[in-house]
From TrEMBL:
It comes from the Archaea. Keywords: Metal-binding, Zinc, Zinc-finger. It comes from Halorarum halophilum. The lineage of its organism: Archaea, Methanobacteriati, Methanobacteriota, Stenosarchaea group, Halobacteria. Residues 1-29, 141-166 are annotated as: Disordered. Residues 142-166 have a biased composition (Basic and acidic residues). The keyword Zinc applies. InterPro entries: Znf_SWIM. GO terms for molecular function: zinc ion binding. This is SWIM zinc finger family protein.
Amino acid sequence: MTHSVHTSASAARHTLPDDGLTGRAGRARREPMAVRALRDDTYLVDTEHDSYIVDLDARSCSCPDRTIRNARCKHLRRVAMEVNEGLVPPPGKRDGACAVCGEPIFVPVGKGSYLCPVHRPARGEFVRDRESGSLLLVTDVTSERSDERETDDGRPIAEYDSNRDYGDHEPVVEAVYVGRARAADGHLDVSGLRRYSFPASRLKRIPDDIAPNLAVVGV
């Protein structure tokens, strides 16, 4: 499960839009609650009467409705709703930001640099080098920062003169130069080509309607 755009849960209790549900599901949406993701992949749910700990993976909640009656309580339901609606991160994710535009996104727990859907190219996507104008094909999008990834000579990607205008905190995108690939029968073969590393924003995405219409092999 992934989410690209979200609003972090406020400390203030709030309701969710009423969608006509009844029972515990309806109360889960209509009752004011504040949901906050904790570092151990659990969630703190603050209600008007008390606070409870919810674990989605274990389907547990510290409230009496769950611990005593074994019911799927409104707190469990509320956390699941807020995760599904992109209001709080799912288990295994945390609040983060796109390394290029700063757009809030959910990212994997731990170190790394990440991109929002607008700035994250897909593997096998054609892009342009902003410095040379050359056409390239993306072979990988990593979570390693440009000031951490080093070339064979031990020099960080971010320190190259051609990369100094781009963020050293940006993730490295690997790509091959299309001009060096073999093309035959409408297929582009990039197998065996050297993979180059770039700060993400140095590579400009190409709209689908003007991107080369070639099948690619060897990515």
